[in-house]
Specification:
Elements lengths: L1 H16 L4 H12 L4 H8 L8 H37 L18 H15 L3 E2 L5 E3 H4 L19 E3 L8 E3 L5 H13 L7 E10 L11 E11 L4 H16 L5 E8 L2 E10 L16 E10 L1 H6 L8 E7 L1 H9 L12 H4 L3
Parallel strand pairs: 1-5
Antiparallel strand pairs: 2-4, 3-4, 5-6, 6-10, 7-8, 8-9, 9-10
Helix pairs in contact: 1-4, 2-4, 5-10
């Protein structure tokens, strides 16, 4: 068997010396190192050898295999170098031609929109507050005035991770960034329960809802929520803040309107529309012929929510609002399908 290995090695090395191109190199590898090569056959026959002969045969077989692999690698490098040299000698290379441009990465359109939202509210004195994506039913619903079996829960079909909504306090992916309101209020009220500090924050993040995916709805989406809590805050403060935001976001000449609505965690509640910047308010397919585009919901923080956060509703008031950066980006760039944002299609993303 040792003599056979010696013959295999010598025959392979002689054949390797005659290889001159990549195709022959691959044929040599298959013939001498492939699964059906003579060397691999020796490895298959080792189980039939006497036990006292196996160590020596196995050691020698591995030595031959390693040597052939090393010679194969060296010869392949040599062939590649010769091919490159031949290419440089025979092919023309115009060194004055400009190089190929390097494709640079860019910000996602949603990231760009969110950064602009951050900048606008930072100029108004709002700070960013990050809250967790996984919440308990208590923080996501109950403390926000969504008691069990409340009809409004049907609008936010949830991804439950542990437990079920009929149990005491199951765990779920947050359906909105509003639970961060309770976290922030309780952090502040813990500092001074009798006179907690005022709050002015925005809460950006990803939200998750078990919805039917369509051109206008996704199962996960970003949201930017705002919260201001203090003494003598009125609906006029809310209206002034959002009207100023609309002008900074969409242009100084944009008109906005507030429509009465209902949310369990605010009272009174409203939805905010801006004048359609595609048709100028005359009516078009983008605004469904109404002349207005809805961009966010808002309202005065419900007294129960204030109380759950540790603030006395007899002393403190506040306002809250929530907007979807995807919806705003769709309106600004006339994108017709929300699914484009998270499909990772480079053809779409390179347009921004």
């Amino acid at each position: 068997m040792l003599n056979q290995l010696e013959e295999i090695e010598q025959a392979a090395l002689v054949a390797l010396d005659e290889v001159e191109d990549e195709q022959a190199m691959e044929q040599w590898r298959v013939a001498n190192l492939g699964r059906s090569s003579p060397l691999m056959a020796v490895f298959d026959q080792m189980r039939d050898l006497p036990k006292d002969e196996r160590p020596a045969i196995g050691r020698r077989s591995n030595e031959v295999k390693q040597k052939l692999e090393k010679k194969h690698s060296e010869k392949a490098d040599l062939i590649n170098q010769l091919a490159l040299q031949k290419s440089l000698e025979t092919e023309r290379l115009d060194v004055t031609m400009p190089g190929r441009p390097v494709s640079l990465g860019r910000l996602h359109p949603i990231t760009t929109t969110m950064r602009q939202i951050y900048r606008i509210f930072a100029e108004m004195g709002f700070q960013i507050y990050q809250s967790r994506d996984v919440e308990t039913d208590e923080y996501n619903f109950q403390l926000l005035n969504f008691p069990p079996h409340h009809p409004a829960r049907e609008m936010q079909d949830s991804f439950y991770i542990a437990g079920h909504y009929e149990e005491d306090n199951p765990v779920l992916l947050r359906t909105h960034t509003s639970p961060g309101q309770i976290h922030k209020m309780r952090e502040h009220s813990a500092i001074n329960p009798k006179d907690p500090p005022e709050i002015r924050i925005i809460l950006p993040g990803m939200c998750y809802r078990h919805e039917q995916i369509s051109a206008r709805a996704e199962s996960q989406f970003t949201q930017v929520e705002g919260l201001a809590v203090g003494k003598q805050i009125t609906f006029s403060d809310l209206k002034g803040t959002l009207s100023d935001f609309n002008k900074r976001m969409f242009g100084q000449n944009v008109r906005s309107r507030f429509r009465a609505s209902h949310f369990p965690f605010t009272e009174p509640s409203a939805e905010v529309d801006i004048e359609c910047f595609v048709c100028g308010g005359e009516g078009c397919p983008v605004c469904k012929r109404t002349g207005w585009l809805e961009i966010l919901g808002c309202g005065m923080v419900h007294p129960i929510v204030l109380q759950n956060g540790g603030y006395d509703p007899n002393i403190y008031t506040g306002f809250a609002f929530g907007m979807g950066p995807e919806r705003i980006t769709m309106l600004r760039h006339r994108v017709e399908d929300i699914r484009y944002f998270w499909a990772n299609d480079v053809r779409f993303l390179e347009q921004f």
